[in-house]
Amino acid sequence: MKKMRCCSVTAVALLLFISNVLADGSSESHHVTVRQATGGGRSNRVTDTFSTPSQQELERTGSPRSNANKRVYVENKYRPVFYKCESAALEEGKPPGTVVSEVKAYDNDTDSAGDIFFTILRAGSEKEFEVDPVTGSIRSSKSFDRDEPAREKIAYVTVKATDRGTPPLEAICTFNVTIADINDNAPMFDKSAYDESVPRDLELNKLVMRIAATDVDAGENAHISYGWDVGSGPDADYFDLDKSTGAIHLKKKITQNEGYKFALMAVARDNGTEPMNSRVRVMINVASSKIKPPYFTDIPESVRLPENYTSYKKPIATLAAHSNIAAPDLYFELVKGQTEQTNSDETFRINERGNSVDIHAAKALDYEKVTQYILTVRVKNEAGVAAETVLTVSVEDVNDEIPTFMAVDGGSVLENSVANTFVLKVQATDKDATYPNNWVRYTLRDFTDKFEIDGNTGDIRTKVKLDREERKSYPLTVVAYDGKESALTLDGLPNQSAKRFQIEVADVNDNAPFFPQSEYFAEIAENADIGAKVSELTALDNDTESQLAYDIVSGNAGLVFSIEAQTGLLKVQQPLDYETTKSYDLIVEVDDGKQKATTKVNVKIINVNDNKPQFMNNNPEHKYGIVENTVPIGPIVRVNATDPDYDPLTAEGPMKITYTLSGSHADSFQINQLGELSIVRPLDRDLPAGRQDWSVFVVAQDELDGVRLENTLEVVVFLDDVNDNAPFLDMTRVVWRENQPQGRIVVLNATDYDEAKNGPPFTMRMADTAEDVVKTSFRVDGSPTSSWSLMATKTFDREERKEYAVPIIISDSGQPTSLTATSTLTVVIGDENDNPMSDGSSAILVYNYRNSLPDTEIGRVYVQDADDWDLPDKTFGWSSAASPPPYFTVTAFGGFITMRARTPPGNYPLKFHVRDNVRQEEADATVIVTVQEITEEAVRRSGSIRLSGVGQEEFIKDSPSKKDLLRQKVAEYVGAKEENVDIFTVMSSSPSRNHSVDVRYSAHGSPYYDPVKLNGLTATHQDELERLLDAEVLMFGIDECLYEKNTICSEGSCTNRLQITEQPYRVATNTSTFVGVDARIVTECVCLADEYLSSSSCSATSCLNGGTCTGDAAQPCRCIDGFQGPRCEGLDVSFGGTGWAWYDPLPTCASGYLSLTVIAQTGNGLILYAGPTAVPPDTTVSDFLAVELREGSPVLYLDLGSGTKRLELPDRSRNLVDGKAHDLEISWNQRSVQMRLGQCSDGQPYCSASSSLVGSNEYLNVNGPLQVGGITADLQKLRLALNWGSIPTDIGFSGCIQNLTFNGLTYNLYDPGFFKNATPSCAGVVLPVQTGGFGWELIIALLVSLLVLMILILVFVAYRRRSRKDKPKDFHDDIRENIINYSDEGGGEGDMTGYDLSVLRMTPDGKPLIGRSDDYGKLLKDEDLRPKRAAPGQVPDISQFLDDNKGRVDRDPDGLAYDDLRHYAYEGDGNSMGSLSSLASGTDDGDLDFECLSDFGPRFKKLADMYGDHSSESEDGEDGQQGGQSGSESWC
């Protein structure tokens, strides 16, 4: 047997790989010894014996357990050891990612326990280096800069090697990276330019000046040499520049005159591999020979200072100099260079003392930053000649840095390890630059009995065996100290720092895991999702660091379950099926890597209804032989279905299968629970509504534990035809021109919806019911075997009659009997241009919506002409007798008139000339165009009516037209002037409603009336309108949601939207044309209340009553005081028993929730009513809702259109007339209704009542206004007309209603559409006194209090009357001849001081009016009764202002003739008013505001000047504010 090579060893990672198996498929044992050399010269020998598997064994492993990634535990005996961890160098400026070094480590453990990965430990937040976790390659993470100002000269890297054993062990190595210098900085001169003077007679080789440069680089890169630039020219021949020192000496006698300037360029060049240089300009001025430069007489060679030097007052050196000229004074300067080494940051300063200067240290020194300073001292005499010298200051290192630990926080050691086992290597650095200041050693502060540390290397080792059960970790404190006395503490001790390291005692796996139970039980439904939890198993292990792994080892047939190896979570992995397997017995194993344990898990599958019923029939099931329009006796087919989930062994009772029907034809069939399908209505085979095959779907539904599933079977019934349809003509109109001779008009064709055997051939003849003129003018010719034709028997004249209706009787050939029917064929007599033309006139009315119409065709020119098909023969043009108006154009052919955009409102008489080109005739035409602008508010707040029996052309023609008559009546009904009523939309209602029209109108006084008022008031005059218009009223307030389950919205919720288009809608007759607004109702299947709750967008109407929109859905509006609704609604309204208020109708929603708060004064009264205000045109819609108080208890009436439900509380003693506010909640759906008092706690039966509803209707559809507080309708009349079972009271409500909401929509109770005697507040509601609890003491106290109050009132009144009578009369403001005071004109004139105004508000029956009413809309608070000023910038119409106010009084149903004798005869005393003298009353206008007079135009300018606070020419007052005094009453 030939053996093949089996194993290979990698040289670096020390991993042993099996590279081949034996060729014959057998296994063989191998003994392998691996010897590895470490970096320290010692070798490690690892010996192990293993077997290579055979090929068959490998193939057998292809059937794994449930977990494919089963963990193999390998005990971790050895920690990693670094054998390569060396210092490195990195050039500054290298980009991130540059390879710096490489670390290597080995681990003597086998398999995964010997795998090592590397990580970087960081002391700070900055990421400087990164390590490859596998290869140990170290790369830079940033670019370093060794030079100023960063000075990054050295960096430390700490790498951790961690193995993958259990538990994981680690090793740490730290090495430094020296940042190597590169020549990346050019030399820098200590000055940007030099300028010195030299005497003309200076001796040769004498020092002229000195230049100096420094380089922040290091080494040769910082070594500088000087020289002259080639650009210096011949001037460089006079001076010698020392290459090393920068000293400039004179080398050639100066021959130039005084004032000459030598211009030189010096170069400083470093000694780098690639040298860098810089240049500086040097200017040397030739001075007088008498002028000599100063010179230093005392120059110290150098100075040495320790880096902790702080004697800043003491000079470090003193330099003296001589002026060398007559003037002895000198000026010293310490030159500030461009690097720190040349004093760029002013580390040193000077102190001048005459001809000497002291040099002082000015800042702290740092040897680690700058080791030497080169100071240039300059001295200058009064002649401006200077000299320089250089002083070198060397810095000496002191021990002022404290050792700092590297980024290591702790280590670990296996328990039971022998003494002297390596634990951790700690390392600290000292930033001091010299030895022994930076020599770091270590010592332990605690646990010295268990650990020891090498003082020089920082290696920590154990001194004894450690037991994890005794202690898991040790906080070991290591002290690092340097090698010399501290220059910081000055206590003779070295600098030191301490750090605590956590030493973990790693656990060894020496305990077996175990399950707390030997057997577990679980249940799971068969329809559980993949991944659903079945159970969670938890095993225990006394080894705290053990990592447990779970696996299913048997019983998992089909691998339907899986278990998470780490958590023990048992889950569903494959679909379960109770019908296949009802339970599983699983064996679950737990493995800690070394030892194992097992337990049993019994999983029971729960049967659920997860299979649909199965039909035994064919799908679809066909049934033939059913005769149309018959109802067979008995079932036509039987269906049979079974439930696959039914288990007779566990089920209780027989299989539950129920049958129902679905589909559009289901109401024509029925099925019983035996599956027998029957026809219950005749089925029609023929068109237009019938079909040959009728389908119905049988739904079989099973049930198990409350879960229902269903399946559907289609049954198709094929019908046999019978002759049940008469034939009819397939044409309805035909044209026959006038003046034609007798002949065939048309071939008659007929259609029969029956099959061919019951259809043709047909027999036709003219009906005996035809008019005599039809019989003499037409005849029907033909035969059944050929064809039938309609013949003309005379010549026709269209002007005599335009069309004829010819009735034709048609019979089919059906069996057993034929069918006969009459079809009417309309023969239209076509026009010929055979009549003369004459002058004509017509009118066009245009409503220009928002004045936004573009160029619009509005109608055509009309002339008198009996012919009406001759328009192509005519040409049209403007009359030469008048100039063409600028706003209109006319087409030559057709005579169509176009109105241009932005045409102003007004009347426009248009003159035209018409020519008939066939008859060669001419005529003139006049068209009166009336243009009216209609605003968006008028359209939005419009009423509407739908009429039947009248077309749109018929509605506008004639004078007066039906449109004019309707306008007059609307003005009469709503109390508006006729000119303030606009009918702006007249249009056919829809193609499906033949000969019907929708009309939309608005009316206004000052604002436009609410649609609620318009529709409600016109609805009460239905009979009169139908007589007047000769039409049937179909609807007041067009409501496409009125009919339940209409064709658009079948699920209940429905909302009407008024859709307004920019394009107009035109209706034309010969003499009149109406161009109106295209405004129509479209429906949307949503509940209007839902939009109120969900909308958070801001619009012009989103916040009411002056509120400000916030855009926040939680609080959409910011409201002014007095309005607390979500959108600033007014939330309360009160009534006194004689009033009511109309609001928008309740929205049509699938279900309803109505809530309100009631404060009642009396026990009987109608709280609210939603329903028709009068008997509606269509009495089939009879929905209404009402809530009343009857003997103090609430009663609800609800009718969804199929029967009235009356609901009251079980305990009628619950009286709401108790002076408290009561919340009333009403909710209903398609089947039931509930009424509940909100303050009642749960469980009190008298608090709520509920009941099922009457009939089959499901939704509340009301078109009438929501009437609150009372009702205007005749309920008895409505009851008889609409067949209501019961009705509420018509007594008005006394009290207050608050917080009225429907489905969350809050009603604005301050803004009814129409009202009477309603007040927008509960403040005036007098609450009833509750009896009980009063004693005699309280009654006596009340009587005494009232008596005292009456006495005080009498005394006060007597005092006022006496003071007024005793007051001396004033004459200074009375300029009349003989009137002293108006009150002195007679004994009866006491009325001037004693008017009782309350009498003036009394009705003829002597009852006072309760509240106020106003046709103009909102309920008015007292502060709202003042007249309102016009909006800023709006000029009011004074005529409209006076007419509106007069009209309002004229139309006020409560307005009384207050100037009758009955009122003025009642003139009492006690009124506090003064004299009514016109002069005296006019002396003070301070409380009036006449500023609005200036708004009425130039005619009121003089009045405004006389009565206003300032002239009409001035717009601003003294304070810069417009208008008069704030708070004054406005006259306007």
TrEMBL record:
<keyword id="KW-0130">Cell adhesion</keyword>
<keyword id="KW-1015">Disulfide bond</keyword>
<dbReference type="InterPro" id="IPR000742">
    <property type="entry name" value="EGF"/>
</dbReference>
<feature type="domain" description="Cadherin">
    <location>
        <begin position="190"/>
        <end position="296"/>
    </location>
</feature>
<feature type="domain" description="Cadherin">
    <location>
        <begin position="291"/>
        <end position="405"/>
    </location>
</feature>
<dbReference type="InterPro" id="IPR056370">
    <property type="entry name" value="Shg-like_Ig-like"/>
</dbReference>
<keyword id="KW-1133">Transmembrane helix</keyword>
<dbReference type="InterPro" id="IPR027397">
    <property type="entry name" value="Catenin-bd_sf"/>
</dbReference>
<dbReference type="InterPro" id="IPR013320">
    <property type="entry name" value="ConA-like_dom_sf"/>
</dbReference>
<feature type="compositionally biased region" description="Basic and acidic residues">
    <location>
        <begin position="1443"/>
        <end position="1452"/>
    </location>
</feature>
<dbReference type="Pfam" id="PF24811">
    <property type="entry name" value="Ig_Shg"/>
</dbReference>
<dbReference type="GO" id="GO:0016342">
    <property type="term" value="C:catenin complex"/>
</dbReference>
<dbReference type="InterPro" id="IPR015919">
    <property type="entry name" value="Cadherin-like_sf"/>
</dbReference>
<keyword id="KW-0812">Transmembrane</keyword>
<comment type="function">
    <text>Cadherins are calcium-dependent cell adhesion proteins.</text>
</comment>
<feature type="region of interest" description="Disordered">
    <location>
        <begin position="33"/>
        <end position="68"/>
    </location>
</feature>
<dbReference type="GO" id="GO:0048565">
    <property type="term" value="P:digestive tract development"/>
</dbReference>
<feature type="disulfide bond">
    <location>
        <begin position="1119"/>
        <end position="1128"/>
    </location>
</feature>
<feature type="region of interest" description="Disordered">
    <location>
        <begin position="1507"/>
        <end position="1532"/>
    </location>
</feature>
<dbReference type="GO" id="GO:0009887">
    <property type="term" value="P:animal organ morphogenesis"/>
</dbReference>
<feature type="transmembrane region" description="Helical">
    <location>
        <begin position="1338"/>
        <end position="1359"/>
    </location>
</feature>
<dbReference type="GO" id="GO:0016339">
    <property type="term" value="P:calcium-dependent cell-cell adhesion via plasma membrane cell adhesion molecules"/>
</dbReference>
<dbReference type="GO" id="GO:0007156">
    <property type="term" value="P:homophilic cell adhesion via plasma membrane adhesion molecules"/>
</dbReference>
<dbReference type="InterPro" id="IPR001791">
    <property type="entry name" value="Laminin_G"/>
</dbReference>
<dbReference type="InterPro" id="IPR000233">
    <property type="entry name" value="Cadherin_Y-type_LIR"/>
</dbReference>
<dbReference type="GO" id="GO:0008013">
    <property type="term" value="F:beta-catenin binding"/>
</dbReference>
<dbReference type="GO" id="GO:0034332">
    <property type="term" value="P:adherens junction organization"/>
</dbReference>
<dbReference type="GO" id="GO:0000902">
    <property type="term" value="P:cell morphogenesis"/>
</dbReference>
<dbReference type="GO" id="GO:0044331">
    <property type="term" value="P:cell-cell adhesion mediated by cadherin"/>
</dbReference>
<keyword id="KW-0677">Repeat</keyword>
<feature type="domain" description="Cadherin">
    <location>
        <begin position="618"/>
        <end position="729"/>
    </location>
</feature>
<keyword id="KW-0732">Signal</keyword>
<dbReference type="GO" id="GO:0007163">
    <property type="term" value="P:establishment or maintenance of cell polarity"/>
</dbReference>
<keyword id="KW-0472">Membrane</keyword>
<dbReference type="GO" id="GO:0045296">
    <property type="term" value="F:cadherin binding"/>
</dbReference>
<dbReference type="GO" id="GO:0008104">
    <property type="term" value="P:intracellular protein localization"/>
</dbReference>
<dbReference type="GO" id="GO:0005509">
    <property type="term" value="F:calcium ion binding"/>
</dbReference>
<dbReference type="InterPro" id="IPR020894">
    <property type="entry name" value="Cadherin_CS"/>
</dbReference>
<dbReference type="InterPro" id="IPR002126">
    <property type="entry name" value="Cadherin-like_dom"/>
</dbReference>
<dbReference type="GO" id="GO:0098858">
    <property type="term" value="C:actin-based cell projection"/>
</dbReference>
<feature type="domain" description="Laminin G">
    <location>
        <begin position="1130"/>
        <end position="1322"/>
    </location>
</feature>
<dbReference type="Pfam" id="PF02210">
    <property type="entry name" value="Laminin_G_2"/>
</dbReference>
